[in-house]
C-alpha cells in the first residue's frame, strides 16, 4: 500500500480552514496542519485549531509563533477597535482595518518552508473571494502569482524535485456552500471560531464582519450554527 501524499494545511481554527482540512483529508492527503500565534486578539482560535486537528485526523499539528503586533497596522494586531455592525454592502467595498499587512504572504512562506522539508508538494489554504471582507491576499490572482514564485524560490523546485501546488477549493464558494461541504464531510462547526473580537472564553461578538458573514452563511444554508449552542 502506497504512502499517502503529504500536504501542509493552514489551520486557523476558523470555519473555512477547518473545512479545508476536512477536504484535504477526504482527498487522501496526510495532513500536516500549521497554525500561527501572531499576536492576534482572537488567540482563542488556537485551542480550537488543536481540537479540530485531532478530530479530523491531522498527522501533525504545529503552532508557529510570530509577533506581528510589532508592526501593528491592523485592528487584529493593534489597539484599534474592530469594526462592528457593518452592512454587507459596506463589506463589498474597500479594505477593512482587520486586514493584517502581508499576513497570507507570511503564512504561505512558512508553509512553503515546511512543505519543502517534508517533501510535500501541496499546500491547502482556505482563502475565499466571494463571502469575504475585501482582503487583497485572498484573490485568485494573488494565489496564482504566489504559486509561480514559490516554484522559483526553493531548492526542491529549482532541482526539479518538487512542483508545488497551492490548493484553494473554497475560493469561489459562498459561505453557505462552504458550510454545506463541511457538513457533508462530518465537520462539527461548534468547535470553530470565526469572531475577530471574542470574549476570553470564546463567545463571539456577533457583530464583526466575520461573525456577520458566518451568520449569513448558516442562514443561507438553512442550518443553525452549532457554535451558538455552546454558549446558551
Model description:
The protein is an alpha/beta fold and 232 residues long. It has one domain (6-229): Rossmann fold (3-Layer(aba) Sandwich). It contains nine helices and five strands, in the order βαβαβααβααβααα. It has a five-stranded parallel sheet with strand order 3-2-1-4-5, sandwiched between helices. The radius of gyration is 17 Å and the shape is globular. The N and C termini lie far apart (47 Å). 40% of the residues are buried. The mean pLDDT is 93.
**How would you spell out the order of helices and strands?**
EHEHEHHEHHEHHH
Radius of gyration: 17 Å
The helix count comes to 9
Proper CATH architecture: 3-Layer(aba) Sandwich
Relative strand content = 5-15%
Mean pLDDT, all residues: 93
Class per helix and strand makeup:
alpha/beta
Helicity level: 25-40%
The CATH class turns out to be Alpha Beta
CATH evolutionary superfamily:
HUPs
Bulk shape: globular
Amino acid at each position: 500500500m502506497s504512502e499517502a501524499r503529504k500536504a501542509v494545511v493552514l489551520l486557523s481554527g476558523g470555519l473555512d480552514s477547518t473545512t479545508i482540512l476536512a477536504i484535504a483529508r477526504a482527498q487522501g492527503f496526510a495532513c500536516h496542519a500549521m497554525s500561527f500565534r501572531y499576536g492576534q486578539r482572537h488567540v482563542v482560535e488556537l485551542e480550537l485549531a488543536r481540537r479540530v486537528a485531532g478530530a479530523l485526523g491531522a498527522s501533525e499539528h504545529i503552532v508557529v509563533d510570530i509577533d506581528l503586533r510589532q508592526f501593528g497596522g491592523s485592528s487584529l494586531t493593534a489597539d484599534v477597535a474592530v469594526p462592528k455592525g457593518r452592512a454587507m454592502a459596506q463589506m463589498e467595498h474597500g479594505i477593512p482595518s482587520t486586514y493584517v499587512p502581508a499576513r497570507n504572504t507570511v503564512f504561505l512562506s512558512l508553509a512553503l518552508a515546511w512543505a519543502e522539508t517534508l517533501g510535500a508538494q501541496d499546500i491547502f489554504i482556505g482563502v475565499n473571494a466571494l463571502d469575504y471582507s475585501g482582503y487583497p491576499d485572498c484573490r485568485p490572482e494573488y494565489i496564482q502569482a504566489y504559486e509561480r514564485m514559490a516554484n522559483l524560490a526553493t531548492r526542491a523546485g529549482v532541482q526539479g524535485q518538487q512542483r508545488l501546488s497551492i490548493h484553494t477549493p473554497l475560493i469561489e464558494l459562498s459561505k453557505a456552500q462552504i458550510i454545506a461541504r463541511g457538513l457533508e464531510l462530518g465537520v462539527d462547526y461548534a468547535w470553530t471560531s470565526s469572531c475577530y473580537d471574542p470574549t476570553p472564553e470564546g463567545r463571539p461578538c456577533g457583530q464583526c464582519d466575520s461573525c456577520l458573514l458566518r451568520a449569513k452563511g448558516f442562514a443561507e444554508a438553512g442550518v443553525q450554527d452549532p457554535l451558538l449552542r455552546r454558549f446558551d
